[in-house]
Automatic annotation (TrEMBL):
Organism name: Streptomyces albidoflavus
Active site, UniProt feature: 137
Source lineage: Bacteria, Bacillati, Actinomycetota, Actinomycetes, Kitasatosporales
Gene, per the UniProt record: ispH
Pathway connected to this protein: Isoprenoid biosynthesis; isopentenyl diphosphate biosynthesis via DXP pathway; isopentenyl diphosphate from 1-deoxy-D-xylulose 5-phosphate: step 6/6; Isoprenoid biosynthesis; dimethylallyl diphosphate biosynthesis; dimethylallyl diphosphate from (2E)-4-hydroxy-3-methylbutenyl diphosphate: step 1/1
Keyword Flavoprotein: no
Family according to the record: Belongs to the IspH family.
Catalytic activity: isopentenyl diphosphate + 2 oxidized [2Fe-2S]-[ferredoxin] + H2O = (2E)-4-hydroxy-3-methylbut-2-enyl diphosphate + 2 reduced [2Fe-2S]-[ferredoxin] + 2 H(+); dimethylallyl diphosphate + 2 oxidized [2Fe-2S]-[ferredoxin] + H2O = (2E)-4-hydroxy-3-methylbut-2-enyl diphosphate + 2 reduced [2Fe-2S]-[ferredoxin] + 2 H(+)
Protein name per its UniProtKB record: 4-hydroxy-3-methylbut-2-enyl diphosphate reductase
Function: Catalyzes the conversion of 1-hydroxy-2-methyl-2-(E)-butenyl 4-diphosphate (HMBPP) into a mixture of isopentenyl diphosphate (IPP) and dimethylallyl diphosphate (DMAPP). Acts in the terminal step of the DOXP/MEP pathway for isoprenoid precursor biosynthesis.
Length: 332
């Protein structure tokens, strides 16, 4: 007698996005806090979360960093570091007035947008800054040319936009937006202002773009996409939206594996996993482990791009590290 084969359970697999996690600007900013703590000792004050990730902030707090929202909270004579998202010139001025030593961990790709804003404002353009209202980066960029910049918070906001001279208008953007939604906003702006000019180079950074491309590649095949990242991380939140837009049946943002709800796995055979640019990979490893204990052991990489870009540490820190190395050398 031949046994009737029982139906094989649906194969469970994980699609793991690459690239995911830390970008060059985040890596630099987090290392800058660690090096500053080693170099100058604790406490180092950091204005705003150095990057928008709970785990990173908690880890640095344990090492002696103190996070504040305003420069006014930093005791005179202390060291304050500015976060990767950048600050307005008024913040630099306030720190100088209070006699604070500053270390600027603004991502160089955000600084690039600040410089574009300054240049177009000098040429008296109206600058339409596409970005999310209240986001730290938008506050910093707007502060470079408050009289010339108008915020455009997505396609729906275009109808409210007014300019002084529609032959002299440029759009710039936050670095961590959805590429597709931004293009939709730009298309609508161009309908309204046909002479609108574009930024000299992409403002949405390489890391944001690459993480979205990878999620698009996996999205259509995934029943569920888990994005590791914090709720206030713009680029991480965008990955959830992009996954759903690419056809994933379901997508959720979690800070830690413990936040995954077992119910999300019902009827799921393919889980996509990725993480935002401010997320250390140890948190993704936690999610992969959690999934493997539920039968999702088979992990396939979905590779969208290679990344090799790195940024040198903030110049103030490099100067002091060099001086110390020189002092040590001459003492030998
Ligand atoms: O604005 C930036 C320079 C991005 C920093 C890295 O990501 P995150 O999560 O700290 O910030 P976003 O909210 O801008 O994505
Ligand atoms: Fe910079 Fe983009 Fe990362 S702007 S901090 S490289 S997400």
């Amino acid at each position: 007698m031949t046994a009737t084969p029982s139906p094989s359970p649906t194969a469970k697999r994980v699609l793991l996005a690459a690239p995911r996690g830390y970008c060059a600007g985040v890596d630099r900013a987090v290392i800058a806090v660690e090096k500053a703590l080693e170099q100058y000792g604790s406490p180092i004050y950091v204005r705003h979360e150095i990057v928008h990730n709970k785990y990173v902030v908690q880890t640095l707090e344990r090492k002696g960093a103190i996070f504040v929202e305003e420069t006014a909270e930093v005791p005179e004579g202390s060291i304050v570091m500015f976060s990767a998202h950048g600050v307005a010139p008024t913040v630099h001025a306030e720190a100088a007035e209070r006699g604070l030593a500053t270390i600027d961990a603004t991502c160089p790709l955000v600084t690039k947008v600040h410089k574009e804003a300054v240049r177009f404002a000098q040429d008296d353009y109206d600058i339409l800054l596409i970005g999310h209202e209240g986001h730290e980066e938008v506050i910093g960029t707007s502060g470079e040319a408050p009289d010339h910049i108008t915020l455009v918070d997505g396609p729906e906001d275009v109808e409210n936009v007014e300019v002084r001279d529609d032959s002299k208008v440029v759009w710039l953007s936050q670095t961590t937006l959805s590429v597709d939604e931004t293009m939709e906003t730009v298309d609508r702006l161009k309908e309204k202002f046909p002479q609108l000019i574009s930024p000299p180079s992409d403002d949405i950074c390489y890391a944001t773009q690459n993480r979205q491309i990878a999620v698009k590649q996996m999205g259509g095949q995934a029943d569920l996409v888990i994005v590791v990242g914090s709720k206030n991380s713009s680029n991480s939140v965008r990955l959830v939206e992009v996954a759903l837009g690419a056809g994933a049946r379901d997508a959720h943002l979690v800070d830690f594996a413990e936040e995954i709800d077992e119910a999300w796995l019902e009827g799921v055979s393919t889980v996509g996993v990725t993480s935002g640019a401010s997320v250390p990979d140890v948190l993704v490893e936690g999610v992969l482990e959690w999934l493997s204990t539920r039968g999702f052991e088979d992990v396939e990489l979905v590779k969208a791009a290679e990344e090799s870009i790195t940024f040198s540490l903030p110049k103030e820190l490099r100067r002091d590290l060099r001086a110390e190395a020189a002092a040590l050398g001459s003492a030998e």
